[in-house]
Write a structure and sequence with these properties.
Length: about 230
């Protein structure tokens, strides 16, 4: 049986999270008159944010802890004094402003146009439910997708098998006729492979020393080699 259903991750796969997030902080710093070098802040923030998303994925911190702590730890690390009230305000503004920046990875529209008549396309995302659909609307890609599955709607996060099983059920798909495409080896690729799905890794950063034996692409248009 051939592939009929293609499941995409959203952030870091189609939607250029880093670029859009940087622009969001730029807007917030200006609005809040935060006198701190944005580049220095972002350099410290990004690994902290990555660490907290991993903890969130592993159910070790809550959504509200993630949103607060990633900012608190960063401001502490750069020795910038800031109140908890303002941190909460920034956390809320981040979620409010982020979906309005809409940069996508190069080739997103071209590859979705190429795939949409051949397959049924879906999204599986660990991102916050209240912003993911807004991101897709703002970047004009929402109409390409049939089912949109957020981890919050399932109650657990990728790579938990429940997310993938739920996605297959919602989409009316089977393991043997589906494929998962995403940037995270742990959450997207191995999560999918572990329940019998095919998977393709989006290695847009050209990371070396990846030992796993799976398909990998460095740009979205390379998907044409596999689909």
């Amino acid at each position: 049986m051939g592939i009929k259903h293609v499941f995409f991750d959203l952030d870091h796969t189609l939607w250029d999270f880093e670029r859009n997030s940087d622009l969001t902080f730029q807007k917030i710093f200006k609005k809040q008159k935060i006198e701190l070098n944005l580049n220095i802040f972002l350099e410290v923030y990004k690994p902290i944010n990555f660490q907290y998303w991993r903890l969130y994925r592993e159910e070790k911190v809550t959504k509200s802890e993630l949103r607060y702590q990633r900012l608190k730890k960063t401001f502490d690390a750069v020795n910038y004094t800031i109140s908890d009230v303002l941190i909460d305000e920034i956390a809320n503004q981040y979620i409010e402003f982020l979906p309005h920046f809409n940069y996508l990875f190069e080739g997103t529209f071209e590859i979705l146009d190429y795939l949409k008549d051949k397959y049924v396309l879906h999204i599986i995302t660990n991102g916050f439910e209240e912003v993911q659909t807004k991101k897709m609307e703002s970047s004009k890609i929402l109409h390409y997708f049939d089912a949109i599955i957020t981890s919050e709607s399932v109650g657990v996060k990728k790579p938990n098998p429940k997310v993938f099983h739920h996605a297959l059920k919602v989409a009316g798909a089977k393991q043997e006729n589906s494929i998962m495409i995403g940037d995270s080896i742990e959450a997207d690729v191995l999560g999918a492979i572990n329940i019998g799905l095919e998977a393709i890794h989006c290695n847009f950063d050209h990371k070396k020393n990846i030992d796993y034996n799976f398909k990998s692409i460095t740009s979205l248009l390379e998907l044409k080699q596999y689909l």
